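thought: fold this chain, then report.
action: predict
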Amino acid sequence: MRGSNRIYHRPYCPPNRREDLKKPFICRLAPFAEGFEFEWLDAYCDGSHTLYYGLRGSEEKIALPVTDAVVRIEGLLRDTDYEFYLESAAGERSNVRLLRTAENPEGATVINYLHKDDDQYSFSGKYLCSPSIVRCESGRLIAGMDVFGGMMPQNLVLLFKSEDNGKTWRYLTDLYPFYWASLFRHRGVIYILGLTTEYGNLQISCSRDDGETWENPVTLFYGSSVLCDNGGCHRAPMMVNNIGGRLYTSTEYGCWKTSHLPAVLSIDENDDLMVPENWVRSELMPFAGEWKKAAAEPVQDWVMSFPGGWQAKDGRQLDTMEGNVLRGPDGNIYNYLRWRLGAFLQLKVNENDPEAPLEFAKIVNAPVSNSMFKVLPWKNGYLLVTNHVTENSMKFHAGINRNVLSVFYSEDMENFRFLRSVVNRDTEDPENVGFQYPATILEGNDLYVTVRASYGSAHACHDANYNLFFHLKDLTL
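observation:
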């Protein structure tokens, strides 16, 4: 076995599982109410294959010969667990895959699915996270997601492609090691910016052929590990925006055990993005001064009624992360960050000195939950794509509220008007159902959204088993 630092794999396989590469590989799975669709590949056998499927735990299996790379099975029981595998003519069997049939949300297309008990990606994690999406110049859509799990390695990104504007999705490649990664396009090149693992090194790679192949990654900043009290680099799949000829995105440094200190990454639009020295990270902003003072102010009673709403018992906010960097209504550049249920944090970016730390601006009451949100310039104002609390979901008094995802409009980033829901399941328990971490593309009045989603007997609302795509057409005020 020869050494390599290549990050793209079809699929990635740990060295101690190399024999798995000789087996058929199930690379995409998409259940629906009364069946499932899956995609497979086999690098060693292009002859006949047989699908075996049946109820989970049952020895009885239906055998079906398959030749097409995409297979659709219908007529199954609703809300029921199944298992299946693929066998080649050479007798090699794929790993047994699990699924549960479920009614998908209206307007949703399943990009990928991972059952909570499926160990296909146990070398990285058990749940789908960090949705990201980008449009190539060719028109192709690429959607990314990573595979995570508590105290697991968390270092695999799965990429899928769509050639028909999101109506259908197909497997593209694995990227390893990558985590918490953003896809974006700059001057015709597709980039991915993320970490090597949770709180690991911040790195970047690029593709010049619509995601088919990727250049060797380069490290921009070094991190540490989730197991370290000091923490390391942190980010979510936040947007990379060109503002005044400079690319900006948010990042933090720290960990859950202490706090996350906010900063922004930036680079001149004319510089080579694959050269680490061209990137600048602003100095980390300490939790002190006006920020700390504002955090000590009481919050609304209804916010405090939600346990786990990202505030201490006395109402003081302890942390922030996952910011949106863009030009605000007054012409300054701001980082709008996740803060707490019912409010976000607004920090000012020094446009003249990219290494200067962020400055506290204010805390803004807004229809946001204790989750990541996206802000996009639109018309004469901004779109806010966010989880929020409804009257129905308030009745649950849950520690986390992500079962409603909606689009709001604001001209001043202070007052927000509801436009429409992406998905609304506010009558279902928010502890077990969630549609969260939206990744977005805005083209005119059309909004494309991918989310990590939990329903159909997911492990928990946070631990997603689906990655979904929505196309919201003709947004109007």
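thought: worth noting. The first helix runs from residue 289 to 295.
final: tokens above.
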